[in-house]
């Protein structure tokens, strides 16, 4: 059985969300967002940087949310959450799947560092403003693409577990401005999904 190492409120929610959508049974280990929780030698043996998500599946231990999601889709029944390679949707599925960690998360990471992780005396407003600006620019093409769409690809796909989760987080951090109506609507669609609700509540009880 897959074992998922998850810290509440993090990217690990993407993997939990996919597992819930696919109705795959999994074991959960919740690690607190603390030095003891993530930087223990035990967790560093799974991920050298002491980060989440990580999954174990038999002899396999794998990290990186995107890689984990692809792995699960390829090794388990993907239930149509990944378009066929020959389909018209496939290139755009790949594009948005990777746009998440490639373009949206770098400024988001910086915003988290500058607003939460650094002690107030080490925060830099210029760096924060640059990151906010870059995040907004990175979200613009997503907002445009979502015009007249409920989800990125078809009725729902694993690209939503990646980029949709980032849009949800950006919105929670008040980084989606009021003009990005399509992203606001998209996040509302995501929030209605039972699997998403379950995934983001994990470890919070
Ligand atoms: N690109 C990685 C990023 C992993 C990552 O940075 N995870 C964060 C949580 S969202 C983490 O574990 N942070 C702990 C730390 O920075 O010490 C992925 O997509 O899995």
TrEMBL record:
<dbReference type="InterPro" id="IPR036249">
    <property type="entry name" value="Thioredoxin-like_sf"/>
</dbReference>
<dbReference type="InterPro" id="IPR004046">
    <property type="entry name" value="GST_C"/>
</dbReference>
<feature type="domain" description="GST C-terminal">
    <location>
        <begin position="86"/>
        <end position="205"/>
    </location>
</feature>
<feature type="domain" description="GST N-terminal">
    <location>
        <begin position="1"/>
        <end position="80"/>
    </location>
</feature>
<dbReference type="InterPro" id="IPR004045">
    <property type="entry name" value="Glutathione_S-Trfase_N"/>
</dbReference>
<dbReference type="InterPro" id="IPR036282">
    <property type="entry name" value="Glutathione-S-Trfase_C_sf"/>
</dbReference>
<dbReference type="GO" id="GO:0016740">
    <property type="term" value="F:transferase activity"/>
</dbReference>
<dbReference type="InterPro" id="IPR010987">
    <property type="entry name" value="Glutathione-S-Trfase_C-like"/>
</dbReference>
<dbReference type="InterPro" id="IPR040079">
    <property type="entry name" value="Glutathione_S-Trfase"/>
</dbReference>
<keyword id="KW-0808">Transferase</keyword>
<protein>
    <submittedName>
        <fullName>Glutathione S-transferase family protein</fullName>
    </submittedName>
</protein>
<dbReference type="Pfam" id="PF02798">
    <property type="entry name" value="GST_N"/>
</dbReference>
<comment type="similarity">
    <text>Belongs to the GST superfamily.</text>
</comment>
<dbReference type="Pfam" id="PF00043">
    <property type="entry name" value="GST_C"/>
</dbReference>
């Amino acid at each position: 059985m897959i074992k998922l190492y998850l810290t509440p409120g993090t990217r690990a929610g993407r993997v939990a969300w996919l597992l819930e959508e696919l109705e795959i049974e999994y074991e959960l280990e919740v690690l607190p967002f603390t030095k003891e929780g993530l930087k223990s030698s035990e967790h560093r043996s799974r991920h050298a940087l002491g980060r989440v998500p990580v999954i174990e599946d038999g002899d396999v231990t794998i990290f990186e949310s995107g890689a984990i999601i692809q792995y699960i889709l390829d090794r388990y029944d993907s239930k149509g959450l990944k378009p066929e390679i020959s389909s018209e949707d496939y290139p755009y599925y790949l594009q948005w799947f990777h746009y998440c960690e490639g373009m949206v998360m770098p400024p988001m990471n910086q915003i988290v560092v500058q607003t939460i992780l650094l002690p107030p005396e080490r925060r830099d407003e210029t760096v924060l403003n640059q990151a906010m600006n870059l995040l907004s620019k990175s979200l613009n093409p997503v907002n445009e693409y979502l015009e007249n769409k409920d989800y990125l690809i078809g009725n729902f796909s694993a690209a939503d577990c990646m980029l949709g989760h980032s849009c949800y987080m950006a919105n929670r951090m008040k980084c989606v401005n009021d003009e990005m109506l399509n992203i606001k609507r998209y996040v509302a669609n995501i929030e209605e999904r039972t699997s998403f609700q379950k995934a983001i509540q994990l470890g919070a009880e």
